[in-house]
């Protein structure tokens, strides 16, 4: 069975493609390679195309005739979404609508959507970050355009299901991190804004240090708390959701998290333990659009689909990222020397 994977050359998308291949599917990647990497497409064909080009999407769907779609293609820099919201609404929302309309014209009606915990944002009642675990029933009140764009897509999918019987499963995951255990693929963004790869850059001496943005949050050590989920566990959840949808499951949504939050300072401390390196730390002001605490309750997908994260500890996650980071750095140096 072929699965059409938008954004399959990106970080989480490429790990999902590997998981699909291992589960017996053929992933077909559709990616404009703006943030994706051609070399990360190893388990199926690549179509270079843009979600803002509905004709290109339709042609690719007609050619490959996939059984379902996994939709990862989106811009995902929270800070940039605050400073340039139009870019995010155009690419994420309009691009998704183009995809869904192209699927309708080619009679493909099953989709796994890469959503986010950023759709939750703040607690409506007191305007602060949630202090308890966030379940799927928590109010969705995003505080940045990135989260708002993803929430709009979820609402479009709900309306498409009602109008056209277009079934989807939305996976709202918390902070994806780590790398493939064999170190074939990993996390590499340009620019890089995610904490763990930035911390590892500092440990490797690639950067001069790491900046902690905000030390006055309402958390035990004053820095933001996030729920880190290993990227391979995220990929496994996408395959389980796909199989559920192919078996006739109705549209629904699930959180993907470990239910354990770690602060920025705790991540830096763990990275120093894993790498054995001293990491220089600087302190800066809060960034716009950052909630103090985001920790997820994933009990629903565990009970419904049997999802069981395999790499739950912060040390496991950082160690896998460090292995890939070292291999990737050595490969880059080797290429530069040739």
Report on this model:
With 338 residues, the chain is of the alpha/beta class. It has 10 helices and 13 strands. It has helices spanning 11-22, 54-64, 78-83, 85-105, 145-164, 195-204, 231-246, 264-275, 299-305, 314-337, and strands at residues 2-6, 26-31, 46-48, 68-71, 110-116, 167-173, 175-177, 210-213, 225-230, 252-256, 261-263, 281-284, 293-294. The strands form 3 sheets. A 7-stranded parallel β-sheet has the order 3-2-1-4-5-6-10, sandwiched between helices. Strands 7, 9, 11 and 13 form a 4-stranded mixed β-sheet that branches. A two-stranded parallel sheet has the order 8-12. Helix 1 links the parallel strand 1 (2-6) and strand 2 (26-31). The longest helix is centred in the last third of the chain and has 24 residues, at 314-337.
β content, as a range? 15-25%
How far apart the termini lie comes to 40 Å
Instruction: Spell out the CATH superfamily.
Output: NAD(P)-binding Rossmann-like Domain
| Main beta-sheet annotation | 7 strands, parallel
CATH class: Alpha Beta
Question: What are the low-pLDDT stretches, counting only 5+ consecutive residues below 50?
Answer: 332-338
Instruction: Write down the overall mean pLDDT.
Output: 92
Global outline: globular
CATH overall fold name: Rossmann fold
Spatial extent as radius of gyration: 19 Å
How many domains make up the coordinates?
Answer: 1
N-to-C SSE string, H for helix and E for strand: EHEEHEHHEHEEHEEHEEHEEHH
Would you count the extended β strands for me?
A: 13
Q: What structural class is derived from the secondary structure elements?
A: alpha/beta
CATH architecture title: 3-Layer(aba) Sandwich
Query: Spatial order of the strands in the main sheet?
Result: 3-2-1-4-5-6-10
């Amino acid at each position: 069975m072929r699965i059409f994977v938008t954004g399959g050359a990106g970080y989480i998308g490429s790990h999902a493609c590997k998981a699909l291949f291992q589960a017996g599917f053929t992933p077909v990647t559709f990616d404009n390679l703006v943030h994706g990497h051609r070399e990360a497409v190893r388990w199926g064909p690549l179509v270079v195309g843009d979600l803002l080009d509905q004709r290109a999407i339709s042609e690719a769907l007609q050619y490959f005739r996939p059984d379902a779609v996994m939709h990862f293609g989106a811009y995902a820099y929270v800070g940039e979404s605050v400073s340039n919201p139009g870019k995010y609404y155009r690419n994420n929302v309009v691009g998704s609508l183009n995809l869904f309309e192209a699927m309708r014209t080619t009679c493909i009606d099953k989709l796994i959507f890469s959503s986010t915990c950023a759709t939750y944002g703040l607690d409506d009642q007191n305007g602060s970050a949630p202090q308890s675990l966030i379940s799927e029933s928590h109010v969705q009140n995003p505080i940045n355009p990135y989260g708002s764009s993803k929430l709009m897509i979820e609402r479009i999918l709900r309306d498409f299901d009602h109008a056209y019987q277009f079934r989807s499963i939305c996976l709202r995951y918390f902070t994806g991190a780590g790398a493939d255990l064999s170190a074939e693929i990993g996390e590499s963004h340009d620019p890089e804004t995610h904490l763990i790869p930035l911390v590892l850059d500092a440990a490797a001496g690639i950067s001069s240090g790491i900046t902690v943005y905000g030390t006055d949050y309402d958390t035990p050590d004053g820095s933001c708390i996030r729920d880190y989920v290993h990227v391979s566990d995220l990929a496994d959840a996408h395959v389980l959701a796909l199989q559920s949808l192919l078996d006739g499951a109705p549209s629904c949504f699930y959180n993907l998290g470990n239910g354990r939050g770690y602060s920025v300072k705790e991540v830096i401390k763990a990275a120093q333990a894993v790498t054995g390196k001293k990491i220089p730390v600087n302190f800066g002001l809060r960034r716009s659009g950052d909630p103090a605490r985001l920790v997820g309750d994933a009990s629903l997908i565990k009970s419904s689909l049997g999802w069981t994260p395999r790499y739950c500890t912060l040390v496991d996650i950082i160690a896998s990222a460090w292995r890939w980071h070292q291999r990737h750095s050595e490969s880059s140096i080797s290429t530069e020397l040739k």
